[in-house]
Amino acid sequence: MTRHARLAAIAIAALLIALPVALPIAIGDDDEKAPLGDPYPLPTCIVDGAKLGDGSVAADHDGRQLRFCNDDCAKKFEANAEELIEKLDAAIIADQTPLYPLKICPVTGDGLDDKGAVTDFVWRNRLVRLCCGSCSDGFEAEPKKYLIGLDRAVFEWQEFEYPLVKCVVDDGKLPGERIDVVIANRLLRVCSEACKKKLLENPIAAIARLDAAKKGGD
């Protein structure tokens, strides 16, 4: 069985049968009160393009986390939200497409046609690739169901090539029972529940460190 075929089988199995999730996923595990979707994953403010620092401002937009470099940009966003969301989605698609693990639509199980029959859909900061635009309605009806399958595929795709031997948050030693989290179609490993909480609150620095390590910079 090829790697892509193996990933497809894993994803389909995750969609069709109720197995326990083996990894703590960014959508909140089994906590029904946890928000669905990923924290804001990009290193820059979507309004003015400035690099986000420690003083960045988090905001909720229709259940989706956004981050701005300051309060002024948060206010400016509200005046032009639709256009800026389109800009954000385009940036997320560009960032996450190379990492996307599935060759099938998570909703229908149909193959994705690399020649063009693919709909790139951003669900609260996560890229999901669908076979057609109408599948977005099916996805939005049961997002957790389909995100579990996608997270499993990300884990399967990236676990054997994971470049860091220490916690991506605090540089601590990873224990035998490390915690794996999927954010922005990336597998990130942390050493404790405390670090997982920090990661889910703001993963920007951790994502930058992981990406640098993949490029040989760590």
Our estimate of the beta-strand percent is 5-15%
- Low-pLDDT stretches are 8-34
Q: What Rg, in angstroms, do the CA atoms define?
A: 17 Å
The description of the largest β-sheet is: 2 strands, antiparallel
Number of strands: 6
First and last CA, distance: 33 Å
- Overall mean pLDDT score? 85
What's the domain count? 1
What global shape is seen? globular
> Main sheet: which strands, in order across?
1-2
Coarse structural class = alpha+beta
**What is the helix tally?**
7
What features would you describe in this structure?
Residues 8-34 have low confidence and may be disordered. Helix 1 packs antiparallel against helix 5 (143-158). The strands form 3 sheets. The chain has a two-stranded antiparallel ribbon with strand order 1-2. It has one domain (3-214). By secondary structure, the protein is of the alpha+beta class. The protein has helices at residues 3-16, 71-79, 81-96, 135-141, 143-158, 193-201, 204-214; strands spanning 57-61, 64-68, 119-123, 126-130, 179-183, 186-190. It is 38% helix and 14% strand. It has 7 helices and 6 strands. The longest helix has 16 residues, at 81-96.
